[in-house]
């Protein structure tokens, strides 16, 4: 049975040709760190409600202003390429980040620059994620369609 399977694979394999992309741009792929599938590794962070309980509304507002400023700073530095809130859910998930770095340790250090995380208003889970290597270049287009900056 095993030999029959191998024989079938041997006979069929010349007809299994991977399709080459006629739009492929090697220089662009290399500059974005893309593999042969146009993909690469990132770090995904899911933000969730933290255990901190601050009663002072002005302090909470200040921490979340700092949170938004930190997002802008990390995006400007090219570290953070996706950030956004999630709708209400039963898991207390608040938002996501995608960092342009597969090193979860480095990302954990970057997360400590967020005042809302440092104050435990937000907590997080960190995951490795594999996605399109073109993800970082969408920010340039976004800046052209963003009428009001948060």
From TrEMBL:
Residues 1-19 form the signal peptide. InterPro entries: Dimeric_a/b-barrel. It comes from the Bacteria. Keywords: Signal. This is YCII-related domain-containing protein. The lineage of its organism: Bacteria, Pseudomonadati, Bacteroidota, Cytophagia, Cytophagales.
